[in-house]
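In keeping with the milestone schedule agreed at the kick-off meeting, the structural modelling team has produced records for the first pair of proteins. Each record is given below as a sequence line and a structure-token line. The laboratory manager (R.T.) confirmed that both were archived under the project's standard naming scheme.
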Amino acid sequence: MKRMVCSCLVVCLVALQGCSKPAGPQTMRVWGDVTYDGQPVEEGSIDFVSPEGATPAQAPIKAGRYDLPALAGPVAEKNYKVQINALKKSGKTIPNMMGDGEPTMELLVNTIPEKYNVKSDLTANISSDASKNQFDFKLEKPGRSK
């Protein structure tokens, strides 16, 4: 009888251990729409960069939408700076710096102004409530009022 009680206790302890929360900060799913000058950003990227030192997160933008799963998402209860980029071919070439034997590389240009990427003041406060992590960004051309 004593053996049976001990066996049940061990099984219960192992089962309870599987119910614990994972160690480390809680990362969250974030999603939303991105438009520039009223049109969906067809292809690009959105970066969540933490000035507080939390791990950054990045998602592709396709047809004006992004969806970053929780496993790769930003940390809950942190503020993030948001940077949005959309690169396209310029039709110009530059010397190849990759050393892969190709003589030139296609020059890519960012179609999104610096005020939304390298000089961005866009922010997102990531909530631990998953339903509050939809962030839509309606980017305007420079010189246009909101």
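The second protein of the pair:
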Amino acid sequence: MTTTSISVAKAKSHFSELIAKNQYSDERFIITKRNKAVAALVSLDDLKILEQYTEKQGLAAIAGKWQGFDEVADAMGEIETLRANGGKGRDVSL
């Protein structure tokens, strides 16, 4: 997977092409304005991974503040393993 920087102006004029490259060749794009990164064009799969990571960080932060809830953190780690394995693995009970 490659990442390419592209100006806002060029991104606007080649938007359809960038989406196709992103979708079919897994190319990511960093969109710049005056040579400063301001946005990114990533695949839906990448976005889902980012959202899961953010969600997990939020839950882990909450669980870490409760005394005696180590099993919650352990279960969350096992859930992450299940996600990584496509839902296949040993049974996890909360």
